[in-house]
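Translate sequence into structure tokens.
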Amino acid sequence: MTQKTVLNEMHRRLGAKMVDFGGWDMPLHYGSQLEEHHAVRRDCGMFDVSHMCAVNVAGPDARAFLLRLVANNVDKLKDPGKALYSAMLNEAGGVVDDLIVYCVGDNSYRVVINAGTAEKDLHWMAARIAGWQLDVTCTPRRDLAMIAVQGPNAKARVWQVLPETRAASEALKPFHAVEVGDYFIATTGYTGEAGFEITLPAAKAEELWQKLLDAGVRPVGLGARDTLRLEAGMNLYGQDMDETVSPLDAGLAWTVDLTGPRDGIDFVGKAALLAQPQEKQFLGLLLLDKGGVLRAHQKVVTAHGEGEITSGTFSPTLQQSIALARLPLAAAVGDTAEVEIRGKRLAARIVKPCFVRNGKALV
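Result follows.
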């Protein structure tokens, strides 16, 4: 049986088309995926991301645990509120899940993991704690809801309905968070636009959602969330990487800190990453020919060998088909490649794997 967020009835009252997403009953769109996409790029929109799992990691060994658990270095989180993006890896260097870690205080962190992998992740974390014999607890916070408000006018709309949060959140840099009463407000997101991800008690989620609606913030479903994240060049777990894919081959080398060891101990998967060189590079594709749409698993032919698309769509902002792909290491930005679509080879240009940020085309 699919799980429901606390906002499920709100979505249905708004006429959302609901779908099963990672075991959760979630809105795909509220009538027009295209209009929802443009609302986020041009004004602002809001997403129910309460299916994501916030986990409180705390205890005397919390720092030591995360130093070994994730590929990035949590010692970069010097001050409460600072966040970093990284991944848990298996011993072979594959991605168990990608996640965000927030520093809450001394040996106290909040980790946000993906909905579809939450149970697997929690078991993985528990097994590591037991194996390493550490004094740390991982507590999933299913009593919380999460609403992301994204777009050029997102912050102004949040301050309109939650004026008490403005003083503390106005000066927040990207990838930082602050607690204001019941609200945990973070400058993170999955759209390539400015905005906040707001974590709050589930009992207060409907009230905030309604206030944002009344302020003119448009609800946005999973369909536009996917086209927005792809335009922004952001990976999707299970599509752009998984347990069989190294973060180095998924364009996530910047989330891996291979220096160390940390306190004499390396993170899980580091030895595998050092032992196996990067095999592919993660780049973008912009379709030049008409007659098709770039989609996952399509073969890409370059002058230096073959590659494969991991995510593809039609970009509403660019009005062209775009994709993320794993390509041969010798392939270069600016080269022309061919993509096999329904028995034909269509031309595409290789570009940097970020197409749109802050409403502006980058390709």
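Note: The chain has two domains: 1-275, 279-361.
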